[in-house]
Predict the structure.
Amino acid sequence: MAQIASITLYQNDEARPVMEAILQDNPTARVLNMPGAVKIDVDDELVINRATVEEKLGSEWDCQQIHMVLISMAGNLDEDDDRITLSWKH
Amino acid sequence: MAVKKMGLKQKYAHLTRGLDWETTYEKMDDVFPYDKFEGIKITDWSKWEDPFRLTMDSYWKFQAEKERKLYAVIDAFAQNNGQTNISDARYVNVLKLFLTGISPEEYQAHRGFAFTGRHLRGVGPRVACQQQSLDELRHFQTQCHTISHFNKFFNGLSEFRTMHDRVFYLSVPKSFFDDARTSGPFEFMVAIGFAFEYVLTNLLFVPFMSGAAYNGDMSTVTFGFSAQSDESRHMTLGIEVIKFLLEQHPDNLPIVQEWVDKWFWRGFRLLGLVSMMMDYMLPKKVMSWKEAWEIYFVEAGGTLFKDLERYGLKMPKYHEQATEACEHISHQLWGLLYQLSHVAGLHAWMPSDEDMDWLSEKYPNTFDKYYRPRFELWKQQEAEGKRFYFNGLLQLCHTCQLPMTFTEPDDPTTTCFRESEYEGQHFHFCSDGCKDIFDREPEKYISSWLPIQQIFQGNCGGPTVPDVLKWYMFGPNDGAEYVGSEDHKLWESWKNTTTKEAAE
């Protein structure tokens, strides 16, 4: 059985470009909508690319801005200047 | 010459390394006296890494922005009389339980992480603990500020701080944090950082805050998610602690496993209070406790522990019992609160027919068979003007301090009792999990402050029920049945005004 990497974001305008970027870059992503929050699950690894978020947003985006829209997550995190990865791969 | 901006990894390395020194006037063991006695072996503190790579300067920047956003919402909520737009005044009882039972624990967590942030020898974890300590203080403050608006209108909120220290059911969360804070720094990190924050906190904040959103409480959902954005960082710290301890030395594994077992069970018992909120107290429901448990423990926790297998760490002991008990605990606890609400600081009520049908659908194996008949009897008694209250003092579990209300793992018709003897005295427990915790450290738990025993010993305001309730600082209208209460009447008056004005 696949291990699920997951992120939960605010259900708001600031989080929307991040959510759209995740759905574009992780084709197998599944979305669970809750009041006020959205949970996105991907098998094994979930990637957020800064470039894709910037394309959706139409302006610059710093990966650490994830802190403004983040509610929860699952997976081993790795973050650098260009991407955030949540993964169960070793 | 232009200076090139540092990358995230480089900046983190500069701001979390080389910040302190090997002391020479004082021995290092005297400067850090608490990080060895638990038996945890650390060979290389520099192996600690915060994967968010959050440095103090960025921390202040993001936290300030979160605060600005939150206080804008709190202001707007107050200005627009948001309290009149919640789904139903029953909802406010969720806030009463939260403010009296959870917010003071945020403060306890603040103090616990301040201590840990002082007493760990490595700079990386110290920085992370200090950030978390500040977060927890922020949570306590923002929760007080947000809920203070409701205190202008509803009963049961004003004396939350005293209630937390004295009231019988609030000793459940209080004793949990007292236990964690009187542990060593590594156990505290595993207890709060890993078991509570990583494995269980989603169950508290995500469905509950989503519930606030669904029930029209804009200000609470905002503080909740604002706090939860810090929790993601805390979860990362929690899992980092586990990996760090397990990678440092193989001797750490059995110690860590015992802590994981203990704190999983303690956390599970504590979250029983949340199960009640989700299944019974939210007028508009988001998901059942059982569904939340499936998503956040069975699925997410299962994945996590599968990942940790490579270190030899196993799923917490009694996790199967916990999952099985999720069919029962919310019903058993709500039934208990219903019978005791005349001595509680919040209201209880029987679910409507519609709510009972929702419970049947969500709990097809248990609700109709074991709980509906009991609830229907109580409703019938109410209709006959004989609302049932239990008059008597309850036997408490010596570990989790909940009343002995839970049933045997394989028999939901028999109450579960366990017992241990220590130095000629008998101690009682609600479960195998709670008994094991006591048996591992009896000398710690024999000094527990058990609220019912304290009443009998004459330490709680006096010998009669009114004496004790006065000492709890309960107002005359804080507890008992919701229907007919001041809160209920106030709500009805608001709704009638709105209807009349709309009709004119």
